[in-house]
Specification:
The complex is a heterodimer.
Chain A: E1 15-24, E2 29-36, E3 51-56, E4 60-65, E5 76-81, H1 85-90, E6 98-105, E7 118-124, H2 128-140, E8 148-154, H3 163-171, E9 176-181, E10 192-193, E11 212-217, H4 222-232, E12 240-243, E13 259-260, E14 263-264, H5 265-268, E15 271-273, H6 274-279
Chain B: H1 2-19, H2 31-34, E1 43-47, H3 51-59, E2 63-70, E3 73-78, H4 97-100, E4 104-111, E5 114-117, E6 125-130, H5 132-146, H6 152-160, E7 161-166, H7 176-179, E8 190-194, E9 198-203, H8 206-214, E10 219-220, H9 225-240, H10 252-258, H11 263-271, H12 277-281, E11 288-294, E12 301-307, H13 328-347, H14 357-361, H15 368-382
Parallel strand pairs in B: 2-6, 6-7, 7-8
Antiparallel strand pairs in B: 1-9, 1-10, 2-3, 4-5, 4-12, 8-9, 11-12
Helix pairs in contact in B: 10-13, 10-15, 11-13
The chains are: A alpha/beta, B alpha+beta.
Chain lengths: 284, 387
Amino acid sequence: MTITTREGDHAYVTQPAKILALKDLTEDTRYFKVKFLDESIIEEDYKPGQFAIMSLPGVGEAVFSISSPPTRTDFIEFGVRRVGSFTEALFKLKVGDTVHLRGPYGDGFNMESLRERDLIIVSGGLGAIPLRSVLLYVEDRREEFNQVFFLNGARSPADMLYREDIIAMAQRGIIESHLSVDKDDTGEWPYHEGVVTTLFPKIADRIVSEKTTAIICGPPIMYKYVIQELLKLKIPKDQILMTLERRMKCGQGHCGHCAIGGRYTCLEGPVFTYYDVQHIKELI
Amino acid sequence: MSKILEFNSKLLDYMSLKFSIFSRYPYRLPYKYYVKNSLDMKTYKMSKDRFPEFIELIKTKGQLYGPVKGNGKYSFEEIEKFEDLDFDYQRTVIGPKKFLTPPRYPTLRYDKSGQADVFVSDEPQIVIGVHPCDIHGIKILDRLFLGNIKDPYYEKRRNNLIIIGHSCLPDDNCICKSTGTDMVEDGFDLFFTELAGHYLVWVGSDKGLSIAIEAEDFLTEEISEEEIQEYVRWQQKRSEMFKSEIPSFKYLADIIHLNYDSKVWDQFGEKCLSCGTCSLVCPTCNCFNVEDRISMNTEDGFRERILDSCTLPCYSMVAGGHDFRPDRTSRLKLYYTHKLKEYIGRWGQPSCVGCGRCVTYCPVNINVITVSEALYEEVCENQEVCE
């Protein structure tokens, strides 16, 4: 069922994992690389877009998107923004400290089904964290995909995540990246200025709508406008994929917090299609 | 998803095989009356004089809980002696869900050396006097906690629980006839129907059967034609006693769907106090929050689950402060939509069992009756679908 649950374990068993590396991505966002203490756990049986639940005894549990791809085993990576009591405690940890993990949960992007397709990956703000898993999957299995466009919107140059990595991937021809910031407060931003939707004209003429899949992740406000752009490009409704955020406590359909109508985001999401959005109220 | 479907179809198979014969009748009629030589379901008769002795017997099986009156209200409490029990009640404030998903319970204990799961002990808990609606409530919780991914904490409590049902007569707030949960066919270990001088006792499980075998001195399988007639008359009388109903309960899912943008929700949202009472008393509300509590010595503590309610503020708030349901209207809409409509899609039936607790306890009269009536009228006004 999940990589951290072995036979005989119940659904809430957590596995200790050691922090291998830490790096500040922005002022308040940090990269975590962890490895399970139990060497027999191999982290390859998951999909980009899935999430895991991190636990610190005495602090609590919280849900984080996995930002490493299943093609890279032996470790799991996260990107965490310091916004609450749990992440506050997480930021105090050092390399070598232990966190407890369970998961992965949810239904992610089915990358196998996207073979031979063009991808438009649209990221806004922290949306780059789960989408990094998609990007690295594409990097590792580049031959499976056709054109790959990456559109990224950030508030300011300092808020942009994984800047060097993305530019390096673009230089190697793995993706075609278009980067944007809402407002350039440094005066040194070499790329586009404006919201992420203003990047679409740069790729519009090269989109073949019937063989393109769009993957979106960003702040709640972003989805509506990005979807409008994608519909203008005539991307099929079931090929507009998005990963959504909701409050979650259990990750397995028990606690009820992530319910949208009768769907539990933790079981049937966090990846939904625009077709779902049209039929499930309140999704975006 | 396939697991859920598999579970549901198994459940349906099981029910149709085992119970189709009985399902036309309120409760189950004594088996021998309809099916000769059936080994499935046993029905006994117990004289009322012997009931105290039976209580003494089951008290030896584990900790006994039953309906007790106190402070003008009923609740399931520990039973010391037979006289404490009071079966002449309509509803307890909180249903038997408190034995399965208590309002607060630890799941994990930790200290500096590590962490360990906290499970309840193996001692059986016996709850007597559970009404059909509450048994249906437990069945709904079972589906949620055991149907898909098993919740180990619930499973342990559920396996320890022995449910002894008891017949009831409705008051003005009971709506279980509308919701189709006024009868119960399974989900209990024993079920007592109170008639003039005796009880009819149905056995619903192996655990129930083993108790019945042990209590054979008090029980007889000799049920006369006349006694069966008495039971049927009692059922008819009970059935006619229901005064309240949910209009078009069968079509409520569609009515809610048509009314998604209705102003009715705003009117109720305006009135709602966001107090969470409805979730506290609802026998199927089980949403929980998870919190870590450190003890005063700062060295150890517990991870606890705490009953939550989708009508409370911040229910859908994520870290960083974005709230997906910032207003009372949207939270109330989630409560009723999830309960009355979406549950049907997921589990094949709504999660309202018609116990009437929200009718009794909501301080501003928002309940399944008022909500469904308002929505029903709204549909009738706007679209000519009602006769």
